[in-house]
Here is the input.
Amino acid sequence: MKKLSVAHLDTEMSWRGGQKQELELIKRLTLLNIKNVLVCKPLSELSKRAQHEGIMVIHLPLAGEWDVLSALKLRAYIIREQINIVHAHSSHAHAIALMAVLRLTSCKLVVSRRVDFHIESFFSRKFKYGSSVDKIIAVSEAIKRILIEDGIDFERIETIRSGIVTNEFEKSDQSRNLRAELGLSQHNIVIATVAALAPHKAHHVLLKAAYIVVKKHPKVIFLLAGEGEMRSVIEKNIYNLGLEKFVKLLGFIDDIGAVYRAADIFALSSSEEGLCTSILDAMFFNLPIVATNAGGIPELIQDGVNGLIVPVNDYSSFAEKINILIENPTRRKTMGIRSSDILEQNKIEHTIEKTLHVYEKLWE
Here is the structure.
């Protein structure tokens, strides 16, 4: 039998949870003697990291969702190299992959879906998610339910949760003390969030909650790690709420483990969320979590066990739950410990194994 070969397609320039999962998948499949190639934009963060790991990378312009030229170049590569599987890992990659594999019976198409909103257009439901897609990988049961509600055949949907990638934390500088760098003492309670500064992360909700929290607990500090298009809006909100002393915008931090080690509580205010690998990371560091009930988040957080769940956009409830954990250090510790038990069900090894099973079933 010919060796399994997979082309992974990603159109993003940034480095987020999806790209981290994708890179780990490629690395581990390569160790299993599976041929992998990453097709992405030049100068993307994923490209840089993949090349550093010795992964084969092909650069294409990938200029928008319907970049026909990039699709034709990818198609030529698929035919020449006899690629068995094309796996589209980002939303814009989906359409390009569809064009590239059209009528190629020897190549199967797998699409990852990481967002928890409905497919709005009839065209997308019929073409992008139609029979040309051999398998859709949903990163949470919440996403799978939405796809089924949108009329997508449930037999073509496989739920495979993102898994915790611990090796990046094992490589991080364990001696780095972010609290000391920021001039924080043991008397400060640190609430951390790690999320792209994007609209669906709803940082404005977290900031409104922070305004309530610091009125009652003035030694609390909020750390916001991440970068994105909403930065200027978030900076303005911090100023308007008078939170300059209480909220620190950290930007993109490569050694993200330092942020988790500095924190006492992890908070996530998303209005939409497929699953959120930042929550998995917080669980690894035994942090209690306060987060919304968006998307697949309740699949990771058992309310009252390893964290507290609040309704989307309800900043007063968000503040109330944060205050509960601030005022109950024993409960914070207990919830953090319980996270490690739940984390056992979300190891990256499970993600790789299930994804490989999808490939092999299509390849039979």
Summary: The chain has two domains: 5-163+347-363, 174-345. The chain has a mean pLDDT of 93. DSSP finds 15 helices and 13 strands in the chain. The radius of gyration is 21 Å.
